[in-house]
């Protein structure tokens, strides 16, 4: 392999670390380099001899040049009769070995592992490296070749040079996956907020919009984002004022609030600007510097009444009443909606107050708002422009 080919292979290794969909492409390139009839980057549990070879585009667990049904058969059965596994269990992380050093060839050709799984695919030799190890789990790279293609000393040396890069690439991929998982969790939590949230970078451009804010923007009544991701109100004065609040939060760290009036509602949106005090370094990219919270008084909380049943022991009927009161219904409105008498509702309310240890309706609403308000999922009602 010349220097250009080697550099290309190293580049492919690290490209796959940050773009998981490229792992299969890298493994194909690696297979070409070593004239492999099949290459697998798989996960082995040496405690049970179970192996995972199939994955999706987001994982480095990949198999190329092997029939999918054959891969399934390996996972289901043949990994447990793989005579190479037991003898390579103690292979240190970052080291490699060829299969002829794992099991005597004269005995190997008599095994079920060879005759029923390897031989039908014209596999005989393998070069194996352990890239990552944790307890009994190992990320294992296996390169298979035919009986007429034993691995030379030069090829083994080349593979040894690649293994440290492969290990680093897998570790980078693992770290990226962990960060991505945290970010996805954070996004899910932000999307469950019962208020709109827009995050702006230091240039005043939106870099994140949660589901409730998206609904308000689609409604295009009181607040929107222009094509550059900058905020707009329904009139020029409020637009200038809101952008000034965001600018003050970016430059001075000041938070503030204002109302955004709407044409389709007599009640304005409440816009609350909070500085996040982030100062990104050059070339790092856009990061949130300001949070804009948008509260719409016309959109009630959509609290899961089962939470109240679990926390306070409310009956299903009592929990539904508590949620209705939280969403702004009166006792009379609720009785009419449910088709029951006011007296029945008042009896239920008495039980709710007793079980929640509150003494009046306003105290109950305060309890539910402070206890569950920020955990409630936004209402599922689709907002449309009138």
TrEMBL record:
<dbReference type="InterPro" id="IPR016032">
    <property type="entry name" value="Sig_transdc_resp-reg_C-effctor"/>
</dbReference>
<dbReference type="GO" id="GO:0006355">
    <property type="term" value="P:regulation of DNA-templated transcription"/>
</dbReference>
<dbReference type="GO" id="GO:0003677">
    <property type="term" value="F:DNA binding"/>
</dbReference>
<dbReference type="InterPro" id="IPR036388">
    <property type="entry name" value="WH-like_DNA-bd_sf"/>
</dbReference>
<dbReference type="InterPro" id="IPR000792">
    <property type="entry name" value="Tscrpt_reg_LuxR_C"/>
</dbReference>
<protein>
    <submittedName>
        <fullName>DNA-binding CsgD family transcriptional regulator</fullName>
    </submittedName>
</protein>
<keyword id="KW-0238">DNA-binding</keyword>
<feature type="domain" description="HTH luxR-type">
    <location>
        <begin position="311"/>
        <end position="368"/>
    </location>
</feature>
